[in-house]
User: Fold Catechol 2,3-dioxygenase-like lactoylglutathione lyase family enzyme from Amycolatopsis endophytica.
Amino acid sequence: MNTTSVLTHLRYFAIAMPNFDEQRAFYRETWGLTETVNDSGVSFLAAEGSPELYTVRLRKDSEKRMDLVAFGCASPADVDTLTEQLIARRVTLVHEPRELDTPGGGYGVRFFDNEGRVVEVSADVAVRAHRKIEEREPIPVKLSHVLMNSPTPEVTVRWYIDHLGFRLSDTMRIGDREIMWFLRCNDFHHSFGIVRGPHAAFNHASFEMRGIDEFMRGTGRLHRLGFERFWGPGRHRAGDNTFSYFLDQAGNTVEYSTELEVVDEDTWHPHIYDLSEPENSDQWGTANPMTESIAACSRNDVDRGLFVAPPM
Assistant:
């Protein structure tokens, strides 16, 4: 039972944490985002090269949790069409399509996925004046992709394909066990993905840099500031993008990346890459080898927000 995707792109992800001030300072002063709205314990942060009013939402809460992941679509009619399909398939809505009261407004629906994450799909959200990132400027252009951990990844991948119309780009495995699935809703190799893990949780968010030089400068800036780079720099096989992975101040994995592959929808066929072959995790061979301890860095804490709608 497949759905034709009405999704056009990834808009933002929203996370909550007790150490809000520390987290806000990290994303503004270290990671290189621009705060567009700050409202009593909630911060909305944009990437300077993106028209999205915000790509990250931070919220102060007594517990760390993933609030939601948000995607855009072309029109309010597409939001309504998707909602009708979700209701017909007995997906639980957080709220029906309505005018949004978050910055930028728009029209959107929220619902729970099969494991209890909150997903938002919206249209007609206001855009911001953005700019071209300059040569050698080591700050993100835009949010590239978000991946989630799942204890039932085959079921969850199928859910996103069937209910939201994602297409499978590539799969990673170790031996005969598949561990990672890359999903797309446009012609970028992936904007979303699922990783096999012991519990449902946020895996990582990736931010696109202007180019290789800016990617390396951003990586180096964090290193000089004393933030541990637990994997990278290197270049993945699936998606052909570069990577440097860090932890934010709440223990969530964030990535600097660039040159994510653009696929030809008419000719693309999904690949299965075996991570027991080192070049499939890092084509360059410059990153530290993928180990169990590195993988554990992105397993994250058990998400306390499953099947619990955020307060905003």
